[in-house]
Specification:
The chain is α+β, with helices and mostly antiparallel strands. The chain is built from 7 helices and 7 strands, in the order βαβαββααββαβαα.
Length: 206
């Protein structure tokens, strides 16, 4: 199973506002609508989309596989393809030399060099498989909390953008201070929290 494996470090979000949460069937429909579709064979860049919780090629979204107790469990898949600059430059240099030799030229125009570089890049992209990664998503619908199995800034930005677009809502990241304030409000201890100070621990030498 993809979700829950590996290093279990999370970034937590809450859904802002009091907008009614979607029904279970609607969650499945939105996951299907914004499911991962992949990069084109010669496309450069990144592509993000939802997948099922089992593996990178899991495209099933149904009640039995997605919902586990109070949670909707699925994953964010991000594919990235990019040709390294040194590799592109080396292949371009070889192609330029080959064309100059074939045409009996000592040099090529700047515009022709750009054309060759674009063609070389296109050919290399077709031979470069994208990097494929999946990140578990745990959504407690009733508590309005979502846990993403990644602390990467880039991954979290992609997640927030896709989630908010998929479910027409706003996510609020839960930082330690915000979490403490939320707990204090629920337990009527805001005054105590405001008076809290960092704990100083001094090592005693023996």
């Amino acid at each position: 199973m993809l979700v829950g494996k590996g290093s279990l470090t999370f970034r937590t979000y809450t859904i802002a506002g009091k907008k009614p949460l979607p029904k279970l069937e609607t969650v499945l429909e939105k996951l299907e609508q914004f499911a991962f579709t992949g990069l084109g064979e010669s496309e450069e860049g990144s592509m993000a989309g939802w997948i099922g919780p089992q593996h990178l090629f899991d495209g099933r979204f149904n009640l039995d596989t997605v919902f586990r107790g109070p949670y909707a469990v699925f994953a964010l898949r991000i594919d990235t393809r990019k040709v390294p600059g040194p590799v592109l430059n080396a292949h371009t240099a070889v192609a330029v030399d080959a064309e100059m030799e074939a045409e009996g030229l000592e040099r090529l125009s700047a515009s022709r060099r750009r054309e060759i570089k674009q063609q070389v890049k296109h050919d290399l992209l077709e031979s470069y498989p994208p990097a494929q990664k999946g990140y578990g998503v745990f959504w407690n619908l009733k508590a309005r909390k979502i846990h993403l199995q990644s602390t990467s800034k880039t991954v979290n930005e992609a997640f927030r953008t896709l989630f908010e677009r998929s479910f027409d809502c706003e996510l609020v990241p839960q930082m330690p201070g915000l979490t403490a304030a939320s707990y204090a409000r629920e337990h009527d201890t805001l005054d105590a929290l405001q008076d809290a100070r960092p704990l100083e621990i001094n090592a005693t030498k023996h």
